Request: fold
Amino acid sequence: MTDFNSQKNRVVWTDIPVADLDRASRFYEAVLGVACHREKFEQFEFVVIDHHDGNGGCLIPAPELVCQKGLLVYFNADGRIRDAVAKAVAHGGSVIEDVHAIGPHGFRAIVRDCEGNRIALHANSDA
Reply:
């Protein structure tokens, strides 16, 4: 985590529960437009979502924790929100709320990922 993130951001990491690490990795790579890579710590395997200078997150194998309600995590899709929504659907997700304005805070779409989790995609414009 960069110093900026540790000093300025309130959310610094997200664990996303999944049933299938490979399928979820392909989904998040396509939707977020970043690389995901598998790691292993002791006997625990997980997938880290690339986060070079931003907030981080990973996919963890925990199908019993997949959430269809509860916290809603917003992922950056600035400049490509419609493409991100299309890729979500193409990679096994579904649209809960299509791209729409959220007042002066930009635009969002709410999708269900390929594992059943509800996530938000955020952008400054609806492009």
Q: What stands out?
A: Residues 3-123 form a domain with the 2,3-Dihydroxybiphenyl 1,2-Dioxygenase; domain 1 fold (CATH 3.10.180.10). The chain has a mean pLDDT of 91. The longest helix spans residues 21-32.
